[in-house]
Protein backbone atom coordinates (compact mmCIF):
# COMPACT_ATOMS: atom_id res chain seq x y z
CA UNK A 1 0.00 0.00 0.00
CA UNK A 2 1.54 3.33 -0.99
CA UNK A 3 1.25 6.57 1.01
CA UNK A 4 -1.71 7.90 -0.96
CA UNK A 5 -3.68 4.70 -0.43
CA UNK A 6 -2.96 4.74 3.31
CA UNK A 7 -4.10 8.35 3.51
CA UNK A 8 -7.36 7.51 1.73
CA UNK A 9 -8.03 4.57 4.04
CA UNK A 10 -7.20 6.71 7.07
CA UNK A 11 -9.59 9.46 5.91
CA UNK A 12 -12.27 6.83 5.29
CA UNK A 13 -11.88 5.47 8.82
CA UNK A 14 -12.01 8.97 10.33
CA UNK A 15 -15.07 9.84 8.26
CA UNK A 16 -16.91 6.64 9.12
CA UNK A 17 -16.13 6.85 12.82
CA UNK A 18 -16.79 10.56 13.31
CA UNK A 19 -19.72 10.70 10.92
CA UNK A 20 -21.29 7.59 12.41
CA UNK A 21 -20.99 8.92 15.96
CA UNK A 22 -22.46 12.28 14.98
CA UNK A 23 -25.33 10.71 13.03
CA UNK A 24 -26.19 8.38 15.92
CA UNK A 25 -26.04 11.30 18.36
CA UNK A 26 -28.39 13.31 16.14
CA UNK A 27 -30.92 10.48 15.87
CA UNK A 28 -31.13 10.45 19.66
CA UNK A 29 -32.44 14.01 19.44
CA UNK A 30 -34.69 13.51 16.44
CA UNK A 31 -36.19 10.06 17.01
CA UNK A 32 -35.28 9.02 20.55
CA UNK A 33 -33.10 6.22 19.17
CA UNK A 34 -30.23 4.77 21.22
CA UNK A 35 -31.77 5.93 24.49
CA UNK A 36 -32.24 9.53 23.39
CA UNK A 37 -35.04 11.86 24.37
CA UNK A 38 -36.52 12.45 20.93
CA UNK A 39 -37.71 15.93 20.00
CA UNK A 40 -39.94 16.29 23.07
CA UNK A 41 -37.44 15.21 25.71
CA UNK A 42 -34.47 16.83 24.03
CA UNK A 43 -36.52 19.99 23.50
CA UNK A 44 -37.24 20.23 27.23
CA UNK A 45 -33.55 19.69 27.97
CA UNK A 46 -32.48 22.29 25.39
CA UNK A 47 -34.87 24.81 26.92
CA UNK A 48 -33.46 24.09 30.39
CA UNK A 49 -29.91 24.86 29.26
CA UNK A 50 -30.84 28.07 27.50
CA UNK A 51 -31.39 26.98 23.89
CA UNK A 52 -34.83 28.36 23.08
CA UNK A 53 -37.27 27.47 21.71
CA UNK A 54 -36.30 24.03 22.93
CA UNK A 55 -38.06 21.81 20.40
CA UNK A 56 -36.81 23.87 17.44
CA UNK A 57 -33.30 23.83 18.94
CA UNK A 58 -33.50 20.05 19.34
CA UNK A 59 -34.63 19.68 15.73
CA UNK A 60 -31.87 21.97 14.43
CA UNK A 61 -29.20 20.20 16.47
CA UNK A 62 -30.50 16.76 15.55
CA UNK A 63 -30.71 17.56 11.84
CA UNK A 64 -27.25 19.11 11.81
CA UNK A 65 -25.68 16.19 13.65
CA UNK A 66 -27.56 13.50 11.71
CA UNK A 67 -27.19 15.15 8.31
CA UNK A 68 -23.64 16.39 8.83
CA UNK A 69 -22.61 13.03 10.27
CA UNK A 70 -24.16 11.03 7.46
CA UNK A 71 -22.60 13.28 4.81
CA UNK A 72 -19.21 13.05 6.52
CA UNK A 73 -19.43 9.26 6.66
CA UNK A 74 -20.26 9.17 2.95
CA UNK A 75 -17.65 11.76 2.10
CA UNK A 76 -20.25 13.90 0.34
CA UNK A 77 -20.22 17.72 0.47
CA UNK A 78 -17.36 17.31 2.90
CA UNK A 79 -16.61 21.02 3.49
CA UNK A 80 -20.22 21.79 4.40
CA UNK A 81 -20.72 18.55 6.34
CA UNK A 82 -17.56 18.97 8.41
CA UNK A 83 -18.17 22.65 9.11
CA UNK A 84 -21.80 22.06 10.10
CA UNK A 85 -20.84 19.18 12.41
CA UNK A 86 -18.09 21.30 13.97
CA UNK A 87 -20.58 24.11 14.57
CA UNK A 88 -23.07 21.78 16.22
CA UNK A 89 -20.35 20.45 18.49
CA UNK A 90 -19.21 24.00 19.32
CA UNK A 91 -22.76 24.64 20.53
CA UNK A 92 -22.60 21.48 22.64
CA UNK A 93 -19.18 22.42 24.01
CA UNK A 94 -20.55 25.80 25.12
CA UNK A 95 -22.91 23.96 27.46
CA UNK A 96 -20.07 21.98 29.04
CA UNK A 97 -17.43 24.73 29.37
CA UNK A 98 -18.40 25.60 32.97
CA UNK A 99 -17.57 22.00 33.94
CA UNK A 100 -13.97 22.21 32.74
CA UNK A 101 -12.25 20.25 30.01
CA UNK A 102 -12.47 16.56 30.91
CA UNK A 103 -15.62 14.60 30.11
CA UNK A 104 -15.51 12.66 33.39
CA UNK A 105 -16.44 15.91 35.16
CA UNK A 106 -19.04 16.89 32.57
CA UNK A 107 -16.56 18.94 30.55
CA UNK A 108 -16.35 19.72 26.86
CA UNK A 109 -13.61 17.22 25.91
CA UNK A 110 -15.87 14.92 23.85
CA UNK A 111 -17.65 17.71 21.96
CA UNK A 112 -14.33 19.44 21.24
CA UNK A 113 -12.82 16.21 19.95
CA UNK A 114 -15.71 15.62 17.54
CA UNK A 115 -15.66 19.27 16.44
CA UNK A 116 -11.94 19.26 15.71
CA UNK A 117 -12.10 15.96 13.84
CA UNK A 118 -15.04 17.15 11.73
CA UNK A 119 -13.28 20.45 11.01
CA UNK A 120 -10.08 18.61 10.08
CA UNK A 121 -11.99 16.41 7.63
CA UNK A 122 -13.64 19.49 6.10
CA UNK A 123 -10.21 21.00 5.49
CA UNK A 124 -8.35 17.82 4.44
CA UNK A 125 -11.13 16.54 2.23
CA UNK A 126 -12.65 13.09 2.08
CA UNK A 127 -10.00 11.22 0.10
CA UNK A 128 -10.52 9.04 -2.96
CA UNK A 129 -12.74 6.52 -1.15
CA UNK A 130 -15.71 8.89 -0.99
CA UNK A 131 -18.90 9.98 -2.70
CA UNK A 132 -17.24 13.35 -3.43
CA UNK A 133 -14.57 11.54 -5.46
CA UNK A 134 -17.20 9.38 -7.15
CA UNK A 135 -19.13 12.50 -8.25
CA UNK A 136 -16.06 14.39 -9.47
CA UNK A 137 -15.73 16.69 -6.43
CA UNK A 138 -18.84 18.63 -7.52
CA UNK A 139 -19.62 19.66 -3.92
CA UNK A 140 -16.06 19.61 -2.61
CA UNK A 141 -14.33 22.62 -4.13
CA UNK A 142 -11.51 24.53 -2.44
CA UNK A 143 -13.57 27.73 -2.18
CA UNK A 144 -16.30 25.82 -0.31
CA UNK A 145 -14.10 25.26 2.75
CA UNK A 146 -13.80 28.92 3.85
CA UNK A 147 -17.38 29.61 2.76
CA UNK A 148 -18.73 26.72 4.84
CA UNK A 149 -16.71 27.73 7.89
CA UNK A 150 -17.75 31.39 7.56
CA UNK A 151 -21.46 30.53 7.41
CA UNK A 152 -21.13 28.01 10.24
CA UNK A 153 -19.14 30.39 12.43
CA UNK A 154 -21.73 33.14 11.97
CA UNK A 155 -24.65 30.83 12.72
CA UNK A 156 -22.91 29.28 15.72
CA UNK A 157 -21.98 32.69 17.13
CA UNK A 158 -25.61 33.85 16.84
CA UNK A 159 -27.04 30.73 18.50
CA UNK A 160 -24.46 30.48 21.29
CA UNK A 161 -24.61 34.25 21.84
CA UNK A 162 -28.41 34.16 22.19
CA UNK A 163 -28.09 31.31 24.67
CA UNK A 164 -25.53 33.27 26.69
CA UNK A 165 -27.86 36.29 26.84
CA UNK A 166 -30.76 34.09 28.00
CA UNK A 167 -28.64 32.52 30.73
CA UNK A 168 -27.42 35.93 31.85
CA UNK A 169 -31.02 37.20 32.10
CA UNK A 170 -32.00 34.10 34.07
CA UNK A 171 -29.10 34.60 36.46
CA UNK A 172 -30.11 38.23 36.99
CA UNK A 173 -33.68 37.19 37.71
CA UNK A 174 -35.18 38.99 34.73
CA UNK A 175 -38.24 37.60 33.10
CA UNK A 176 -37.59 36.08 29.68
CA UNK A 177 -39.71 37.14 26.75
CA UNK A 178 -42.16 34.51 25.56
CA UNK A 179 -40.78 34.82 22.04
CA UNK A 180 -37.41 36.11 20.90
CA UNK A 181 -37.61 39.04 18.54
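^ C-alpha coordinates above, recovered residues below v
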Amino acid sequence: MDCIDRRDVGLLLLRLGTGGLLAAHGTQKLFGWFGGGGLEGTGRFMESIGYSPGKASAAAGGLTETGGGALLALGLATPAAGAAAAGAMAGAAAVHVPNGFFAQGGGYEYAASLALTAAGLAVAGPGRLSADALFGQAVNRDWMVPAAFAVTAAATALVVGARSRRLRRRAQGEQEALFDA
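The longest helix spans residues 3-31.
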